[in-house]
Amino acid sequence: MFSVNNLTDNANLEVISKLGNFKVLEHQKDLSVDPMSAQTFYFAQKMNIRKRQVLIELNGNSATVQSGAMQWSIGSVAAGTGVKGIGDFFGKAISSKVTKESTIKPTYSGNGLVMLEPTYKHILLIDVSKWGSIVLEDGLFLACDSSLTLKTVMRSSISSAALGNEGLFNLSLEGSGVAALESPVAADELVEFTLNGDELKIDGNMAIAWSNSLNFTVEKSSKSLLGSAVNGEGLVNVYRGTGKVLMAPTV
Hints:
This protein is mainly beta. The protein has one domain: Double-stranded beta-helix. 14% of the residues lie in helices and 47% in strands. The strands form two sheets. Strands 1, 2, 3, 4, 5, 6, 8 and 11 form an eight-stranded antiparallel β-sheet that branches. Strands 7, 9, 10, 12, 13, 14 and 15 form a seven-stranded antiparallel β-sheet that branches. The chain is globular and about 60 Å long. The termini are far apart.
């Protein structure tokens, strides 16, 4: 048995969200600062720039974590590579090259706690089952239940990568479980669109996640080149079909 003091009972640490076995802890203030940086940290805290960490509770289950993200673990927790053989390793290595994700995402299983490294980014806890299969922009993945399947998916057309200034491949999560994502903006600023046989057009790559069921292309904002020039929009990202899109409008 183990106990941890000055963690969840710390007045400076607040649990700001929780879902499944995941909790997001936020440091309300940076307490260990020197006189030269105190003013900077004071105003940073006032603007909601705070360190956040993910605490994962393991009760016989397992979690997959971004490489290098684990800060500490306690209890009967075993670490693994998540690689099922040499073929799986080479497959993950190829996927890492095209998605800019790490080749090995370690898994932690057993009974205990796993704490991830602090980050100033905003952390989103997502129930992947509500998305069916969710596609992520590069750099969003932080951790997830190992019950989820991580795949590399290709954009529906080369134009969506070349014209949209995007990569051709993305990481997707599929199945039932919770994922922790590092968002560039706070959850309160995110806009979630739900499409039912409809289409969404976004000027720029502000979508940070979308359902894999959607068809994603890059098109002229108007049917004619003249119309696109006149309205000043040019090319837009278009999502068609049935599913969801999560957009960060203030990035």
